[in-house]
Design a protein that fits this description.
With about 800 residues, this protein is of the alpha+beta class. Among the domains are: about 250 residues, Aspartate Aminotransferase, domain 2 (3-Layer(aba) Sandwich), CATH 3.40.640; about 110 residues, Alpha-Beta Complex (Aspartate Aminotransferase, domain 1), CATH 3.90.1150; about 90 residues, Alpha-Beta Complex (Aspartate Aminotransferase, domain 1), CATH 3.90.1150. Helices cover about 50% and strands about 10% of the residues. It is built from 25 helices and 17 strands. The protein has a seven-stranded mixed beta sheet, with helices on both faces. Strands 8-9-11-10 form a four-stranded antiparallel beta sheet. Strands 12-13-15-14 form a four-stranded antiparallel beta sheet, covered by helices on one side. InterPro entries: GrpII_AminoAcid_Decarb, PDXDC1-like_2nd, PDXDC1-like_3rd, PyrdxlP-dep_de-COase, PyrdxlP-dep_Trfase, PyrdxlP-dep_Trfase_major. It holds the Pfam family PDXDC1-like_cen2. GO terms for molecular function: carboxy-lyase activity; pyridoxal phosphate binding. Belongs to the group II decarboxylase family.
Length: about 800
């Protein structure tokens, strides 16, 4: 290993000396200058855009015709900048362009150089491309311990594996070039993929190779022993034997050195022995292959150096943009590699390695090893920190060298092993286990999204695993170099996890209590939504609610909208939102996470009472038009009757204008003023006689009071809604308040008794000794005064004022 590193260092130094001479070509000098100015312009424009709060420049959003006179470079770069950052208000993008660094500029320069080099004459182009390809292949093979290998550079990561499959087909089917797929029909090839492989990989291979899907064989992972994300070697051997008996040809096996989900490594040593026994091509891929550049490598990853081919992605590992992926392979027949597409006689195809060739020389061996080592140290730092955090389960295969950390929040099930969250207690029902699993999945999804927002430099990913459920993945090998992740970011991530744990545990504990309270409340329906991370979901069932229908309900939507507004006006610590039900289109109220101990009974009671009040008010408004119309008609009839009665009482003569005035002057009529008032609450007409007699407006029929909860409690000043009784230090103040109220009640009682027997008062009889009750009253008054001085913030109850 030391000799290989020295050889790489000598090779890199030689190339660096070649580039250290003064640039005599003016085109190269101008190209480097233009690239530097262009990158500076784009970065400055992005910085100005962020300072202006992401204001859009409309010139880049409106397409127009191609200008005949053309545009200068500054205008074109401004257009590119607008297209790159024009949608920052809608979807904030990552800050990758800020973290490209100088090594990224070198990689971008490689694409410009490739276009310039392609204009050289054929002989110079052939020599230069051959040198670039051979140097890059040699450096990569020695850095990643893959001796005597060849390299294929490609843009799509899966493209290299597709070319390797073509090479394996040509190697095992000698007449494939002549007979084509007729050879495959007689003996169908089989490609073995792990169940933990990236989704869609098998379909991609079949589409690229023109093979039917039966050519794929999915190998399950371990179920009893070992990691549940490793390929089951014994089961694989059984599949191979069965395929041979059916007349099929085992062609290729794809193993993982770091699965796409959790970063576990297959038992590559045993797989290599099995492939050698049955003549199967072994291809290895995965992020853990980056650790081959380090001084210490685990034995499982080190076995990948003996495989037939491997795919590397140095771009994400080293933070290099627009750098191709590399597939290293070993094969002795150059004709077959040419037919398979792994090699090419075109010099322009060899220029794909130019950006990587420049970047490797710029970083050097030490820089490459340092970046990979830094990413692994970040993983170890997070892993050691999470071991000390309660309610966090870590899914790590190798605690000493795993570059990927996968963790999840969990709540210990009753009677289960705290370290095995996936194994429930024997006495638990399957439905309870499934509900607990869904609840934890929703909470872990919420936790992952919160951590991604709080620590964007961590590069976290939320994923769903078949066995463990929803987890959060930290893979610095693929993100740290691009995002610039540091050790301080890992410490901040751990601190954020610890700060969110009380919210998660409190919410999970209140879920079942909320469900029981809702199921026991009249008019409320509990909605089981496995994707909602909050306390729960509830729907109010109004009088006209069709329970069998799944369509949207306009009346219910109106009630829930008013309910949401009322709940948000309470200014509690809970968050409320309205949305459609999980399995239908009916509106529901979604209650968010609980950061403190919540009085669930008060919460549910408030929701039920408020929704019932909104429904009653809504029905009152709906019936108001009809009630008012009927009331007006009834008032007209009653007023007409009143006029007829007044006519009969006063007589006909009093209705004549002149005669009536003279008659009223000699003999006035003492008629009472009669009117009508319409009570909107009762929906009835009432007489105004009470108003004219007592000079006050009557209240009419008293409307029924809005039903209030029997458990409604009085809150202390500053206490937010839905909070349980304060504990700890607040207990003293509560005790003082209660004692204060009791003392005042005793004072009032004794004072009342003293007023009833004034004859025994010491003021009436100065010579009579003070009775014990009066002494007790005085002591209680003094005590009450002291309590008022100690806790003046406690208000007297309404009944004692």
């Amino acid at each position: 290993m030391i000799q290989g590193n020295r050889a790489i260092s000598r090779s890199l130094i030689t190339s660096a000396k070649t580039l250290s001479y003064k640039i005599a070509d003016p085109t190269l000098a101008e190209m480097g200058k233009n690239l530097k100015e262009a990158m500076k312009m784009l970065e400055d424009s992005q910085r100005r855009t962020e300072e202006e709060n992401g204001k859009k420049l409309l010139s880049g959003d409106i397409p127009g015709p191609l200008q005949g006179s053309g545009q200068d470079m500054v205008s074109i770069l401004q257009l590119v900048q607008n297209l790159m950052h024009g949608d920052e208000d809608e979807e904030p993008q990552s800050t990758r362009i800020q973290n490209i660094g100088e090594q990224g500029h070198i990689a971008l320069l490689g694409h410009s150089l490739g276009a310039y080099i392609s204009t050289l004459d054929k002989e110079k182009l052939r020599k230069l491309t051959t040198r670039i390809l051979s140097d890059t292949t040699l450096w990569l093979c020695r850095i990643f311990r893959y001796e005597n290998g060849c390299a294929y550079f490609h843009e799509e990561e899966r493209e290299g594996l597709a070319k390797i499959c073509r090479l394996a087909i040509h190697s095992r089917y000698e007449d494939f070039v002549v007979d084509g797929f007729n050879v495959l029909y007689n003996k169908m090839p089989v490609i073995y993929l792990s169940a933990a492989a990236r989704p869609g990989l098998g379909q991609y291979l079949c589409n690229q190779l023109g093979l039917p899907f039966p050519c794929l064989c999915r190998v399950p992972c371990n179920t009893m022993f070992g990691s549940q994300h490793q390929m089951d070697v014994a089961f694989l051997e059984k599949l191979i034997k069965d395929d041979i008996e059916r007349g099929k040809l085992p062609l290729l096996l794809v193993a993982n050195a770091g699965t796409a989900a959790v970063g576990h490594t297959d038992k590559i040593g045993r797989l290599k022995e099995l492939c050698k026994q049955y003549g199967i091509w072994l291809h290895v891929k995965g992020v853990n292959l980056a650790t081959l550049a380090l001084g210490y490598v685990s034995s499982s990853v080190l076995a990948a150096t003996k495989c037939d081919s491997m795919t590397l992605t140095p771009g994400p590992w080293l933070g290099l943009p627009a750098v191709p992926a590399v597939t290293l392979y070993k094969h002795d027949d150059p004709a077959l590699t040419l037919v398979a597409g792994l090699t090419s006689n075109k010099p322009t195809d060899k220029l794909r390695a130019l950006p990587l060739w420049l970047s490797l020389q710029y970083l050097g061996l030490d820089g490459i090893v340092e970046r990979i080592k830094h990413a692994c140290q970040l993983s170890q730092r997070l892993q050691e920190s999470l071991k000390k955090v309660n309610h966090i389960k870590i899914l790590v295969e190798d605690e000493l060298s795993s570059p990927v950390v996968v963790f999840r929040f969990f709540q210990e099930l009753p009677g289960s092993d705290p370290g095995l969250n996936a194994i429930p207690a024997p006495n638990m029902a399957p439905s309870a286990v499934s509900q607990e699993r869904h609840s934890c999945d929703a909470l872990n999804r919420w936790l992952g999204e919160q951590l991604k927002q709080l620590v964007p430099a961590s590069g976290l990913t939320v994923m769903d695993l078949e066995v463990e459920g929803t987890c959060v993945r930290f893979s610095p090998l693929t993100t740290a170099a691009v995002l610039g992740t540091r050790g301080e970011d890992v410490d901040q991530l751990v601190a954020c996890i610890q700060s969110q744990l009380p919210v998660l545990t409190c919410t999970l504990q209140l879920r079942e209590e909320f469900k029981q309270e809702v199921m026991g409340a009249a008019g409320l329906l509990y909605v089981d939504d496995p994707n909602w991370p909050g306390i729960g979901v509830v729907r109010y069932e109004h009088a006209n609610d069709d329970k069998s229908s799944l369509k949207s309900d306009p009346e219910g939507e109106k009630i829930h909208a008013g309910l949401l507004k009322k709940l948000n006006e309470l200014e509690s610590d809970l968050t409320f939102k309205m949305g459609p039900e999980y399995k239908s289109m009916k509106s529901c109220i979604y209650i968010g996470m609980a950061s403190d101990d919540i009085d669930v009974s008060e919460l549910v009671e408030t929701i039920a009472v408020t929704a019932r009040e909104i429904e009653e008010n809504s029905r009152l408004l709906e019936n108001m038009t009809e009630v008012v119309r009927k009331g007006i008609q009834e008032a007209q009839v009653q007023l007409q009757k009143a006029n007829e009665e007044r006519l009969l009482e006063e007589g006909v003569l009093r209705q004549i204008p002149v005669v009536g005035s003279v008659l009223n002057w000699f003999s006035p009529v003492q008629a009472s003023q009669k009117g009508r008032t319409f009570n909107l609450t009762a929906g009835s007409l009432e007489s105004t006689e009470h108003t004219y007699v007592y000079k006050v407006q009557g209240s009419g029929v008293t409307p029924p009071q809005t039903p209030s909860g029997a458990r409604t409690k009085q809150r202390l000043p500053g206490q937010k809604p839905f909070k349980r009784s304060l504990r700890g230090s607040d207990t003293v103040s509560e005790t003082s308040s209660v004692s204060h109220i009791e003392d005042l009640e005793k004072i009032e009682h004794l004072s009342g008794g003293q007023d009833a027997s004034e004859a025994n008062s010491p003021e009436r009889h100065p010579g009579v000794p003070t009775p014990p009750e009066a002494e007790q009253t005085g002591a209680l008054q003094d005590r009450a005064q002291r309590l008022e001085d100690d806790c003046p913030q406690v208000e007297e109850p309404e009944s004692l004022r």
